[in-house]
């Protein structure tokens, strides 16, 4: 019996040795591949191409990056030192990896959500901005909402409203809404029409083109917003809170949406578009140059539609960005709402007419940079984020968040 046990135990030992040997050879093979790739990277690395692309990027930023002057004047970014340090890093690089890390450090210095380095897609460069754009060619019919790029995104609450005493839901997607006592809550999770697949499928018709589809979806979303507001009003809501936490932005639809929440005529400075009148490349040497913007901004006016006419609150956080910040700014600058929560993301204006796109052609990367900037009534660039009127501890437990919200609402009663 002992012989049988001994004989049956030996195959597993041999098997384990075989497995270890296989894994050892796999490890050696993978290591050889990695070393080979690193060697290839070093041998084929073209330092000059990276330097040329970096110089081209600086030239483009000097005339197209809307927040560049703000970074120098208000955040204290030393462009001359940044230029020197990045050139030194590129000059000392011996591989694409080292050069990429140097370029990434350069981009991250600005801490601007809309200024980013991505893998290039070999698009044709955007034409220079013009005061009068040529008419667009009609867009071709789209086969379906999915083919047009529409997708379903989560729309439910991020804040624990459902745990508030007496909370009752009165409206579902695309804009969940509910009441807790006299407080009405409505959730707007996205401001991009293409994030509402179900709504798109409700309005899609054969032969519709992309532009018509987008406008039809927008109209349907506006209708749903008005319905949700009406449902809250019918259920006795006397005060309304709009939840924009985590809303990363979207399109100009935001201007139509925000108008529903006030009856005021609102005004604020127009977004400023890059339009320098001089050669600004000496800015990288620390020299004074002309403004990246052209004429002083005009005043934008937005007529409130008054679907909601009572006291208004907006809940924002660090995920509230871009178009959502425009929503917040319109209401804050016109004292039309009390902003609760945390400072917004600081993404600001973003890209006008798909501008602010620069191809690093020699190395295959692309840099996106905002070509417009929005400023608050106090002169602050939205890239700094928008501070709440009343801060809330959004990183605490659900119970603590609800208690803080309840206390904040109590302090704002007339």
TrEMBL record:
GO terms for biological process: proteolysis; signal transduction. The chain crosses the membrane at residues 22-40. Keywords: Membrane, Transmembrane, Transmembrane helix. Residues 116-140 are annotated as: Disordered. CDD domains: Peptidase_S41. It comes from the Bacteria. Residues 128-140 have a biased composition (Low complexity). Pfam families: Peptidase_S41. PANTHER family: CARBOXY-TERMINAL PROCESSING PROTEASE CTPA, TAIL-SPECIFIC PROTEASE. This is S41 family peptidase. It comes from Polyangium jinanense.
């Amino acid at each position: 019996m002992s012989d049988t046990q001994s004989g049956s135990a030996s195959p597993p030992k041999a098997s384990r040795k075989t497995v270890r040997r296989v894994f050892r050879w796999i490890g050696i093979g993978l290591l050889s591949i990695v070393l080979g790739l690193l060697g290839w990277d070093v041998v084929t690395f073209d330092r000059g191409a990276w330097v040329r692309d970096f110089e081209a990027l600086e030239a483009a930023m000097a005339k197209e990056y809307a927040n560049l002057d703000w970074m120098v004047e208000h955040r204290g970014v030393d462009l001359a030192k940044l230029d020197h340090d990045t050139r030194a890093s590129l000059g000392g690089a011996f591989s694409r990896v080292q050069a990429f890390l140097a370029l990434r450090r350069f981009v991250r210095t600005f801490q601007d959500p809309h200024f980013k380095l991505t893998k290039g897609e070999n698009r044709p460069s955007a034409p220079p901005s013009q005061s009068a754009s040529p008419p667009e060619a009609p867009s071709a019919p789209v086969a379906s909402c999915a083919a047009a790029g529409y997708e379903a995104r989560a729309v439910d609450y991020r804040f624990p409203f459902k745990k508030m005493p007496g909370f009752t839901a009165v409206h579902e997607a695309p804009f969940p809404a509910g009441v807790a006592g006299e407080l009405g809550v409505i959730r707007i999770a996205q401001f991009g029409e293409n994030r509402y697949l179900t709504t798109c499928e409700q309005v899609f018709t054969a032969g519709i083109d992309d532009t018509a589809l987008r406008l039809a979806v927008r109209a349907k979303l506006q209708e749903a917003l008005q319905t949700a507001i009406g449902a809250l009003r019918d259920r006795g809501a006397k005060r309304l809170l709009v939840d924009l936490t985590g809303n990363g932005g979207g399109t100009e639809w935001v201007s139509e949406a925000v108008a529903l929440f006030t009856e005021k005529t609102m005004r604020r400075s127009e977004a400023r578009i890059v339009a320098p009148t001089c050669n600004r490349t000496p800015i990288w040497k620390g020299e004074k140059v002309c403004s990246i913007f052209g004429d002083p901004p005009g005043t934008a006016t937005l007529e409130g539609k008054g679907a909601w006419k009572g006291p208004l609150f907006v809940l924002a956080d660090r995920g509230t960005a871009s178009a959502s910040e425009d929503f917040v700014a319109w209401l804050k600058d016109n004292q039309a709402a009390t902003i609760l929560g945390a400072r917004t993301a600081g993404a600001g204006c973003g890209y006008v007419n798909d501008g602010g796109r620069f191809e690093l052609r020699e190395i295959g990367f692309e840099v996106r940079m905002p070509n417009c900037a929005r400023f608050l009534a106090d002169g602050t660039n939205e890239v700094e984020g928008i501070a709440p009127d009343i801060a809330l501890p959004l990183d605490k437990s659900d119970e603590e968040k609800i208690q803080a919200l309840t206390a904040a609402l109590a302090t704002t009663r007339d």
